[in-house]
UniProtKB/TrEMBL annotation:
Residues 1-269 are annotated as: Amidoligase domain. InterPro entries: Class_I_gatase-like, CTP_synthase, CTP_synthase_N, GATASE, GATase1_CTP_Synthase, P-loop_NTPase. Keywords: ATP-binding, Glutamine amidotransferase, Ligase, Magnesium, Metal-binding, Nucleotide-binding, Pyrimidine biosynthesis. Catalyzes the ATP-dependent amination of UTP to CTP with either L-glutamine or ammonia as the source of nitrogen. Regulates intracellular CTP levels through interactions with the four ribonucleotide triphosphates. GO terms for molecular function: ATP binding; CTP synthase activity; glutaminase activity; identical protein binding; metal ion binding. The keyword Nucleotide-binding applies. Residues 305-529 form the Glutamine amidotransferase domain. CTP binds at residues 15, 150-152, 190-195, 226. It comes from Flavobacterium flevense. Allosterically activated by GTP, when glutamine is the substrate; GTP has no effect on the reaction when ammonia is the substrate. The allosteric effector GTP functions by stabilizing the protein conformation that binds the tetrahedral intermediate(s) formed during glutamine hydrolysis. Inhibited by the product CTP, via allosteric rather than competitive inhibition. Residues 5-269 form the CTP synthase N-terminal domain. This is CTP synthase.
């Protein structure tokens, strides 16, 4: 196949309809039929990337192997497809403007007046075709962030219109995701908001080829016909997307509705084989019929908002299924934990994960949680800041360095057991300047880490500025906190563990970013297994 085909996914009526999940589900089905498929997301905000956004604003910041700080939907793409994404898979309006303005400064527009149309739209169109032109993909799905009709989405919508025209019929199609609200008082599903949003799209010159309708109730045949007639699509292209008990159900629901077949037909592509969803469905079966249950305490300061720890929560779903275990993640706010109330707060908890994070708020609660897990021999898993907290806790309570701290929290501390990395010392810009992306780590034999990974060289994704201070490593090792994984080039300690403990591990990187349905992350799988064992006791 030589022509890459494009599928654009737009959203109407309201945000939060789950465009990312629909895009990922369709991609999954196309991939399972044998098409090389990728997904990219175009976001309409002016931040160059979401790296500087507070997690409360936009949920978790997801990190790719090549060190891009991206929208959390890229996590869904990877978890569904089991194919890594990259910098090219997430573009924001900020990035588009930045590159157009840089070109203008370099004089690349030869005296022209630089305008939204055509300069911004051309830049968008180029970016939209970047992955397609690599020759690595048969189908590229592009999710447009925001809702049709928003002022800030307009340049994207215009670019889609032009691209559909440039690429020609059967090479690019538009899927519009909308909401069919249910009015309880009238006992009816309502199509009007969808009709309006399709009309809004039409005003921008785009005709939706497929409608995916989010709904809480089944769409009748009559309603589907009505939607088809008033929204100008074939009836078979009216796809119901009913609320599912888990997002991992959605590919099968879309398969039943024939979304992949309708899309292939519109793109003039053969169906190829029936989708091979064997691994996927085995996972689903295990997810739905667990044999055990565990309560895992997630200790963090953003626990009020689920999206802030998206990849961790999803990694627990993958690793729970791998263990045939239902993992109840119990969110515990680190700001409200202290030495007095901790036993009460943790009384039904089987294992503890101390979450990543930034800044001082809630860290004493995190340190108390590490101590509790260590002293009570409860399975412990610390990620990034969570690992740094375990180094501080060990220094304070085992080595007796009561002043031990991270210089992120107290730059005057007499024992900076966690401090700013050397290469960070002259960094002043906040955006995209952390230690990011995949870095190598060598694992020492005869360690828990080796037992878990089964190999000595691993690559994991990072996002941090501070590190475990090498000046303290030898003393802490002697006292029992083992450095079991080290970056061979920088000597940076990436993994710590305690031998005299059933399961105590802290990692400087973020394993949650690499956990997928097909490849649940071994650290999470083993942590859940340790929790099951602890509970049985
Ligand atoms: N704030 C810590 C650092 O910058 C940890 C970061 C994180 O948990 N991702 O090193």
């Amino acid at each position: 196949m030589n022509q890459t085909k494009y599928i654009f996914v737009t959203g109407g009526v309201t945000s939060s309809l789950g465009k990312g999940i629909i895009a990922a589900s369709l991609a999954k089905l196309l991939q399972a039929r044998g098409y090389r498929t990728t997904i990219q997301k175009f976001d309409p905000y002016l931040n160059v990337d979401p790296g500087t956004l507070n997690p409360y604003e936009h949920g978790e910041c997801y990190v790719t192997d090549d060190g891009a700080e991206t929208d959390l939907d890229l996590g869904h793409y990877e978890r569904f497809l089991n194919v890594p994404t990259s910098q090219a898979n997430n573009v924001t309006t900020g990035r588009i403007y930045l590159s157009v303005i840089e070109k203008e400064r370099r004089g690349e527009f030869l005296g022209k007046t630089v305008q939204v149309v055509p300069h911004i739209t051309n830049e968008i169109k180029d970016r939209m075709q970047l992955l397609g032109k690599s020759g690595d993909y048969d189908i590229v799905i592009t999710e447009i962030g925001g809702t049709v009709g928003d002022i800030e989405s307009l340049p994207y919508i215009e670019s889609v219109r032009q691209l559909v025209w440039d690429l020609g019929e059967n090479n690019a199609i538009v899927i519009h995701l909308t909401l069919i609200p249910y009015l309880a008082a009238a006992g009816e599903l309502k199509t009007k908001p969808t009709q309006h949003s399709v009309k809004t799209l039409m005003e921008s010159g785009i005709k939706a080829d497929i409608l995916v309708c989010r709904t809480e109730h089944e769409l009748s045949q009559e309603l589907r016909s009505k939607l088809a007639l008033f929204c100008n699509v074939k009836k078979e292209a009216v796809i119901q997307s009913i609320d599912a008990s888990t997002i991992y159900e959605v590919p099968n629901l879309m398969l039943e509705e024939g979304l992949d077949i309708v899309a292939l037909k519109k793109l003039d592509l053969p169906k190829k084989a029936a989708p091979d969803l064997k691994t996927w469905n085995t996972f689903l079966k295990r997810l739905k019929s667990p044999k055990h249950t565990v309560n895992i305490g997630l200790i963090g300061k953003y626990v009020e908002m689920q999206d802030c720890y998206k990849s961790i929560l999803e990694a627990f779903i993958h690793s729970g299924a791998a263990n045939e275990t239902k993992v109840n993640v119990v969110s515990i706010h680190s700001e409200y934990i202290d030495e007095e109330n901790i036993a009460e707060k943790f009384k039904d908890i089987d294992a503890i994960l101390v979450a990543p994070g930034f800044g001082e708020r809630g860290i004493e609660g995190k340190i108390a949680a590490v101590r509790y897990a260590r002293e009570n021999k409860m399975p412990f898993f610390g990620i990034c800041l969570g690992m740094q907290m375990s180094v501080i806790e060990y220094s304070r309570n085992v080595l007796g360095l009561s002043e031990a701290n991270s210089t992120e929290m107290n730059d005057q501390t007499s024992h900076p057991v966690v401090n700013l990395m050397e290469e960070q010392k002259n960094v002043t810009d906040k955006g995209g300047t952390m230690r990011l992306g995949a870095w190598k780590c060598e694992i020492k034999p005869n360690t828990l880490a080796y037992q878990i990974y089964g190999e000595t060289t691993i690559f994991e994704r990072h996002r941090h500025r501070y590190e475990y201070n090498s000046a303290y490593v030898a003393d802490l090792e002697k006292a029992g906190l083992k450095a079991s994984g080290v970056n061979p080039d920088t000597g940076l300690v990436e993994i710590v563990e305690i031998e005299e403990h059933p399961f105590f591990i802290g990692v400087q990187y973020h394993p949650e970013y690499k956990s997928t349905v097909a490849n649940p992350h071994p650290l999470f799988v083993n942590f859940v297994a340790a929790a099951v064992k602890a509970r049985k006791k």
